[in-house]
Specification:
With 228 residues, this protein is mainly alpha-helical. The protein is 54% helix and 10% strand. The chain has 9 helices and 3 strands, in the order H-H-H-H-H-H-E-E-E-H-H-H. A 3-stranded antiparallel sheet has the order 2-1-3, with helices on both faces. Strand 1 and strand 2 form a beta hairpin. The structure holds fe (ii) ion (FE2). The site of fe (ii) ion has 7 residues, from helix 3.
């Protein structure tokens, strides 16, 4: 006979790791504070966009993630009821969408910095060296990342990511709010209309050209250093 504590531990071990993580963290996600004022990225990204994007859009992903995790946790205590399994399967898309939205936006805010501070400045160091090794120049990287991000159909993200297998920086895109899982994210660019439409309307290339003036390369380098 298995002691109750051992049974609980055995059940927990049998659950997928992601499910255990959701149970452990239900209802705890909060909107991170921006590391600068809403208008600090002007004229490249307007204060109006930043305020809506952060306080409304990102908050909605946080709320959706907390709600989905709470529901998921309830279903996990439903025992052998297969209808609970169906409900849990239905929740996967909400977890992916809202969880991805929270992960991506939390990364995105830190990815940006006012041009009057470190924004847009790529100093000598491992990031500059690696960009030049893998793309030839920063200008080449900008061209490739802008072109592939502008070509995302519908909503999504453009990324400079680190390929763990090839040990190289690569440009990749993800759809919707899918988080980048194939690579380690180094720089992420939000190409949802809510990120640029109020200022740039439908002209994605203008937004993509402007955002490089406020990319926080120091943050990107810190991420790269963790995998080099
Ligand atoms: Fe966004």
């Amino acid at each position: 006979m298995i002691a109750p504590l051992a049974r609980t531990a055995a059940r927990a071990a049998a659950r997928p790791a992601f499910a255990r993580a959701f149970v452990a963290s239900r209802g705890v996600h909060t909107l991170p504070e921006l590391p600068y004022a809403y208008d600090a990225l002007e004229p490249h990204i307007s204060g109006e966009i930043m305020k809506l994007h952060h306080s409304k859009h990102h908050q909605t992903y946080v709320n959706g993630l907390n709600a989905a995790e709470e529901q998921y946790a309830k279903l996990q205590s439903a025992g052998a009821d297969v209808s609970a399994v169906k409900e849990a399967i239905k929740l996967q898309s909400a977890l992916k969408f809202n969880g991805g939205g929270h992960i991506n936006h939390s990364l995105f805010w830190k990815n940006l910095a006012p041009a009057s501070k470190e924004g847009g400045k790529l100093e000598a160091g491992p990031l500059k060296d690696t960009i030049e090794r893998d793309f030839g120049s920063l200008e080449n990287l900008k061209k490739e990342l802008n072109a592939k991000t502008a070509a995302v159909q519908g909503s999504g993200w453009g990324w400079l990511g680190w390929n763990q297998a090839t040990k190289k920086l690569e440009v990749v895109t993800t759809a919707n709010q899918d988080p980048l899982l194939s690579h380690v994210p180094i720089i992420g660019i939000d190409i949802w209309e809510h990120a640029f439409y109020l200022q740039y309307k439908n002209v994605k290339p203008d937004y993509l050209n402007a955002i490089w003036n406020v990319i926080n390369f120091k943050e990107a380098e810190a991420r790269l250093k963790t995998v080099l």
